[in-house]
Amino acid sequence: MKFSEKIGKWYQQNKRNLPWRKTNDPYVIWISEIVFQQTRIQQGIAYFQRFIDRFPTVLDLAESAEEEVLKIWQGLGYYSRARNLHHTAKTIANVYNGRFPDTFEEVIQLKGVGEYTASAILSIAFEKPFAVVDGNVARVLSRIYGIREPINSPAGKKILAAKAHDIMDKKNPGDHNQAMMEFGALFCVPVNPDCGNCIFADQCFAYQNKRVDKLPVKVAVTKIVNRYIHYFVLLHTHNETSYIFLNKRNEKDIWQHLYDFPHVETEKQINLKKASVRFYENFGFYPQIRKEVVKDYRHILTHRIIHGRFYRMEIDDIVPEEKLRILDEKYLRIPVASID
């Protein structure tokens, strides 16, 4: 039995019942591919459904405000994905009259769409023979065919793309691609796969040569950088209304165009006294400390670990108005009642 027939049969018997597999709408398939680029399936299904419920068509997404798109995306992280979705929806609405393009040359030009995503959309939605290679597919191919080039190197990517295209079921590319990804996600897993019961056990290079734990090969990744950010949660009450200050991140850095609190960043962790000095250096006065949130929040990104520490502070009436104007020039003063 051919490779494509084997894995196709396995897929029909084992595939998960996922909402985007019930349609060939390129818009829905595109959204699913972007949502799950950096998110596990089980964690992301609710977010995917919420996004589709709010923006059921590409025109609904195109006509929305970026702030609303980011709010609906909240919790998924990697917010550039949401901004790219919004930008691309506008392109499809304005350039293609709301019709999702169906050629590789057009789809690859859409913002936030790379070769993998373009191939997935074209094969699943339009049944065009473009093979996908994500991390799951790369692992399956590397083990079965003994590909020892690093899967994240240019040479390795080229070899994997050629092999994926060679073994593809050209008559049924959508199901074939999904079968490859599903097999890697559910069966040919990174650690301790059940090789003895694998449908490819008799032809798998890694299993036959006891190299399952050695394949695939990856080149060294970028060094992880630790960042220490100290957030000042500033509360100011004026005329019986409580306000809080927010910072909109417009610099080219993490979380661009999203909101956080006024803050300072240090090279290493510092205590409350030193953080207060840094606050004074930035804002010109010492606020009243209500409570230090001593718990450190640790947030892991691809190449960074964010160590966030929060300080609840009150600005009392003895602070001169000109000092508050410095804050107002840099930050948004928001009524606490409307913070949501």
Q: Which series of helices and strands comes N to C?
A: HHHHHHHHHHHHEEEEHEEHE
β-strand percent reads 15-25%
User: How helical, in percent, are the residues?
Assistant: 40-55%
DSSP E strands, number: 7
Largest sheet geometry: 7 strands, mixed
- Our Rg estimate from Cα atoms comes to 25 Å
Give the distance, in angstroms, between the N- and C-terminal Cα atoms.
Answer: 58 Å
Number of helices: 14
Please identify the structural class as seen in this structure: alpha+beta
Low-confidence stretches: none
Indicate the mean pLDDT: 90
Overall 3D form: elongated
Write the layout of secondary structure elements.
Layout: H1 3-14, H2 26-35, H3 41-54, H4 58-62, H5 66-73, H6 80-95, H7 104-107, H8 115-126, H9 135-145, H10 154-166, H11 173-186, H12 205-208, E1 225-238, E2 241-248, E3 259-260, E4 263-266, H13 272-283, E5 288-300, E6 304-315, H14 321-330, E7 332-335
Parallel strand pairs: 1-6
Antiparallel strand pairs: 1-2, 1-4, 2-3, 2-7, 5-6
Helix pairs in contact: 1-11, 2-3, 2-8, 8-11, 9-11
Structure, explained:
The chain has 340 residues and is α+β, with helices and mostly antiparallel strands. 43% of the residues lie in helices and 17% in strands. It has helices at 3-14, 26-35, 41-54, 58-62, 66-73, 80-95, 104-107, 115-126, 135-145, 154-166, 173-186, 205-208, 272-283, 321-330, and strands spanning 225-238, 241-248, 259-260, 263-266, 288-300, 304-315, 332-335. Strands 1, 2, 3, 4, 5, 6 and 7 form a 7-stranded mixed sheet that branches. The longest helix has 16 residues, at 80-95.
